[in-house]
């Protein structure tokens, strides 16, 4: 099975912004871009993206999950990066058009079609280190993906990092390339030094998120996760899981909590911890590493509540249970 995100549909959809307006969208080959080497994005990182999925149901119809939430976040990212503002209706039509084009190639569950809208500043102006790009390119790639947990849901080893941070705090809620570049060095070091799979960034002791996923702690009937603020990415999966947890009668606590509280709770039998994001939905955490000591979460293995919440979300995505929140768009 090819690694996640390495197979692409041969065509993508794109639209260009210049002279203060968006072009008509067009479907073009997905294996090349024509870009001036002085393009703003290549020098000053004017780039943001989204990640969402389309699912095939048993009757063959294809649905996109929470597209409006991802479009709203793309608009927010673009605005915070001073990129041209994205017309939400236009992007929605683009996404539906390209997903429809490859509807027949949308994998059956547990696979899906991963959708990657991307927005980049294209103005050739290397003098614009402190000024926005006046032109941009918005394109959407498609990548069919398989079962994230084909080898079973193995619990991750996660390093708790209190000294650094994932990205500059005012960039936290922007889904932008520079933030991943900023976290890559620390994550690579955590892999070699601690055999950690991820870093959970906890600046000043405040439990935040990992390099590309939100963090939730499950203690009995309660879910605890950091309250939304502008320092971290507002995950659509996070919001979906919290909504489902409330539906299931769980207590949802969105509040700040410390590394000390996290480690105290993690030691209790029955506690679970998980990372949430579109690619894997919920990935269990089995071990925390903190100041060179290891702490097992619960029994150190994937827990039942994590599995139940993931299944409940998959059931909606896969059309096996009612979509009571109106999260699916039929294409
Ligand atoms: C994409 C992302 C998430 C998860 O967001 P979803 O909308 O759930 O996929 C969380 N944190 C970071 C830093 C991300 O890039």
Automatic annotation (TrEMBL):
The alphabetical list of record keywords is:
Aminotransferase, Pyridoxal phosphate, Transferase
According to its UniProt record, this protein's enzyme class is transferase
- Pathways per UniProt: Amino-acid biosynthesis; L-valine biosynthesis; L-valine from pyruvate: step 4/4; Amino-acid biosynthesis; L-isoleucine biosynthesis; L-isoleucine from 2-oxobutanoate: step 4/4; Amino-acid biosynthesis; L-leucine biosynthesis; L-leucine from 3-methyl-2-oxobutanoate: step 4/4
Cofactor needs: pyridoxal 5'-phosphate
InterPro entries in the record, alphabetically?
A: Aminotrans_IV, Aminotransferase-like, B_amino_transII, BCAT-like_C, BCAT-like_N, BCAT_family
**Mind telling me which CDD domains this protein's record contains?**
BCAT_beta_family
Q: Does the keyword Transferase apply?
A: yes
Q: Which reaction does it catalyse?
A: L-valine + 2-oxoglutarate = 3-methyl-2-oxobutanoate + L-glutamate; L-leucine + 2-oxoglutarate = 4-methyl-2-oxopentanoate + L-glutamate; L-isoleucine + 2-oxoglutarate = (S)-3-methyl-2-oxopentanoate + L-glutamate
UniProt-listed Enzyme Commission number(s): 2.6.1.42
Q: Which Gene3D superfamilies match?
A: 3.30.470.10, D-amino Acid Aminotransferase, subunit A, domain 2
**Listed GO molecular functions?**
L-isoleucine-2-oxoglutarate transaminase activity; L-leucine-2-oxoglutarate transaminase activity; L-valine-2-oxoglutarate transaminase activity
Question: Where, per the database record, does this protein carry N6-(pyridoxal phosphate)lysine?
Answer: 175
Any one Pfam family here would be Aminotran_4
Q: Name one GO biological process term.
A: L-valine biosynthetic process
Q: Its function?
A: Acts on leucine, isoleucine and valine.
What family is reported? Answer: Belongs to the class-IV pyridoxal-phosphate-dependent aminotransferase family.
The protein in question is named Branched-chain-amino-acid aminotransferase
Which organism is this protein's natural source? Answer: Pseudoalteromonas translucida (strain TAC 125)
What lineage, starting at the top, does this entry show?
A: Bacteria, Pseudomonadati, Pseudomonadota, Gammaproteobacteria, Alteromonadales
């Amino acid at each position: 099975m090819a690694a996640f995100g390495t197979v692409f549909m041969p065509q993508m959809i794109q639209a260009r912004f210049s002279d203060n307006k968006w072009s008509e969208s067009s479907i073009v080959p997905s294996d090349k871009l024509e870009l001036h080497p002085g393009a703003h994005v290549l020098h000053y990182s004017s780039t943001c993206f989204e990640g969402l999925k389309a699912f095939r149901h048993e009757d063959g119809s294809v649905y996109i999950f929470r597209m409006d939430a991802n479009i709203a976040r793309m608009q927010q990212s673009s605005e915070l990066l001073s990129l041209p503002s994205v017309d939400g209706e236009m992007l929605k039509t683009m996404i539906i058009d390209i997903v429809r084009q490859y509807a027949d190639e949308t994998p059956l569950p547990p696979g899906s079609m991963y959708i990657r809208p991307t927005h980049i500043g294209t103005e050739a102006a290397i003098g614009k280190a402190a000024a926005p790009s006046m032109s941009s390119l918005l394109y959407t790639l498609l990548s069919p993906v398989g079962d994230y947990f084909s080898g079973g849901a193995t619990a991750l080893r996660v390093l708790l990092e209190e000294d650094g941070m994932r990205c500059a705090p005012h960039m936290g809620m922007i889904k932008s390339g520079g933030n991943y570049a900023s976290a890559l060095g620390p994550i690579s070091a955590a892999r070699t030094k601690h055999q950690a799979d991820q870093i959970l960034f906890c600046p000043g002791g405040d439990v935040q998120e990992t390099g590309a996923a939100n963090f939730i702690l499950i203690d009995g009937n309660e879910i605890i996760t950091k309250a939304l603020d502008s320092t971290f990415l507002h995950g659509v999966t996070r919001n979906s899981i919290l909504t489902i947890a409330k539906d299931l009668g769980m207590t949802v606590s969105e509040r700040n909590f410390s590394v000390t509280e996290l480690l105290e709770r993690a030691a209790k039998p029955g506690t679970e911890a998980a990372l949430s994001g579109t690619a894997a939905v919920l990935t269990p955490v089995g071990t925390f590493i903190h100041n060179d000591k290891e702490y097992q979460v619960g029994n150190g293995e994937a827990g039942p509540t994590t599995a139940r919440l993931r299944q409940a979300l998959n059931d909606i995505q896969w059309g096996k249970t009612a979509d009571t929140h109106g999260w699916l768009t039929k294409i």
